[in-house]
Write a structure and sequence with these properties.
- The chain is α/β, with parallel strands linked by helices and 288 residues long.
- The strands form 3 sheets. A 6-stranded parallel beta sheet has the order 6-11-10-9-8-7. Strands 3-5-1-12 form a 4-stranded antiparallel beta sheet, covered by helices on one side. The chain has a two-stranded antiparallel sheet with strand order 2-4.
- The chain is elongated.
Length: 288
């Protein structure tokens, strides 16, 4: 499974905005008032709870944006499981700079590690199955590249990145285009292929009749929306490997084991990104 590259041009803009909202016009006033300008320090980023490491290159970039003279050493590999007490990285240099960068660096790192940890749990729930877990577009605005990176680092698979890299025909599209009745799926697939022949076409279906029409239209992917296990099993039989099938809607960690036995190709879950708990990671600092 390919892990997407971090778009550092976009990340740099996110870091700039994050530091700007933290520092305002006056900067880190507490640190400037209390910490001597020449004081050196060393810090450790420590996992306080079990987590999958993701985002150390981003944390490193935060520290460097505050002070290019800081020395950052990553000690955990991206995708590695970190037990509580694991020192994930060390940073050395100006005490003022370390304190100023601390919260912004941790915010990025905790969020990405939380996503990777959740992705790992969902992927492991499908162990022994050919079904793969997918993320969705339910991401933090502006953070999609990073959050999908963390999903892949955790061992899950990225769905489409945005609205531009796959056709996804949903019931709202068909209804607004006057294609919600019989034959509407075939017409919408044909229109999509005519306009964007280079893109794969996916159709969302709510029932088995719509599934049959999507299969007949030779959609590349078919999304089975909010179907129970018995209906999805019948969908797999009807499809007979014609299209790639994706189960979506109402997906929980507890359901994955059963869904993985049905024969669908993918399961997508917004929970990989939209409701993740941040990993518990702290920065311990001392005089150098």
């Amino acid at each position: 499974m390919a892990i997407p590259k971090i778009d550092f041009e976009r990340v740099d803009e996110l870091i700039r905005l994050a530091l700007a909202e933290d520092l305002g016009e006056l900067g880190d006033t507490t640190t400037l008032a209390v910490i001597p300008a020449g004081l050196g320090a060393a810090a450790e980023l420590i996992a306080k709870s079990p987590c999958v490491c993701a985002g150390l290159p981003v944390a490193e970039r935060v520290f460097f944006k505050v002070d290019r003279s800081l020395e950052f050493t990553a000690l955990a590999e991206e995708g590695a499981v970190c037990a509580p007490g694991t020192v994930m990285a060390r940073v050395k240099g100006s005490a003022r700079s370390l304190l100023t960068a601390e919260r912004t660096a941790l915010n990025f790192l905790q969020r990405l590690c939380g996503i990777a940890t959740t992705a790992r749990k969902y992927a492991e729930a499908l162990t022994g199955s050919d079904t793969r877990i997918l993320d969705t577009r339910k991401t933090t605005p502006g953070f999609r590249n990073l959050e999908k990176y963390a999903v892949a680092v955790g061992g899950a698979t990225n769905h489409r990145i945005g609205l531009y890299d796959r056709i996804m025909i949903k019931d709202n599209h068909r209804e607004l285009a006057g294609m919600e009745g019989p034959g509407g799926i075939a017409r919408s697939v044909e229109r999509a292929r005519q306009m964007y022949p280079q893109l794969k076409v996916q159709v969302e279906v709510d029932n088995l009749d719509e599934l049959r029409e999507a299969v007949a239209a030779k959609a590349d992917y078919i999304l089975l929306d909010n179907m129970d296990d018995a209906t999805m099993a019948e969908a797999v039989r009807i499809n007979n490997r014609t299209a790639l099938l994706e189960a979506s809607g109402g997906i929980t960690l507890e359901r994955l084991g059963a869904i993985g036995k049905l024969g669908v190709d993918f399961v997508s879950a917004g929970a990989l990104t939209h409701s993740v708990k941040a990993a518990d990671i702290s920065m311990d600092i001392r005089k150098d």
